[in-house]
Amino acid sequence: MAKAEGQTLEFDGPERINPTGLETFPYEGPKQWVEYKTQEFSAVCPFSGLPDFGELVVEYIPRAKCVELKSLKYYLLSYRNVGIYQEHAAARLFQDIEKLLEPQFLKITLTYQTRGGIDTTCKVSTEDSKN
To answer: Per residue in 21-33, pLDDT tens?
Structure first.
């Protein structure tokens, strides 16, 4: 039997995700499509504690607020040691950012690096959440 078989690393639960530090600034202007992208999103597998790395794309049309980027970075870092399913991470990101911004439109796309030979992309948008 391999020594790594059945081994797990310690990780935090989803209660460690911290949206309270997210900040906004007022937006006044024409209808505008805003896109933020980072290849530095990470959380951990809730079975093994091994890291899941992915590219996160946040797209939105602001109603009256935009997210301040430094606060967004700290919020994303709060996922770093959280054991969370990939699909749940995308849903939680969507819920927290939608609650913060109340945008005209929001779409979260989270594309994970290949795990076990399977590619995973999770997408949640205001259009999807209405159904």
So the answer is: 999 999 999 999 9
Active-site entry in 52, 66, 96, 122: 52
Catalytic (active site) residue 52:
yes
Per-residue HEC secondary structure of 73-115 comes to HHHHHCCCCEECCHHHHHHHHHHHHHHHHCCCEEEEEEEEEEE
Alpha carbons 57 and 85: distance in angstroms, whole number: 18
The string of pLDDT tens digits covering residues 48-76 is 888 999 999 999 999 999 999 999 999 99
- Considering the candidates 12, 45, 66, 119, report the single residue annotated as catalytic: 45
Query: Does 45 participate in catalysis according to the annotation?
Result: yes
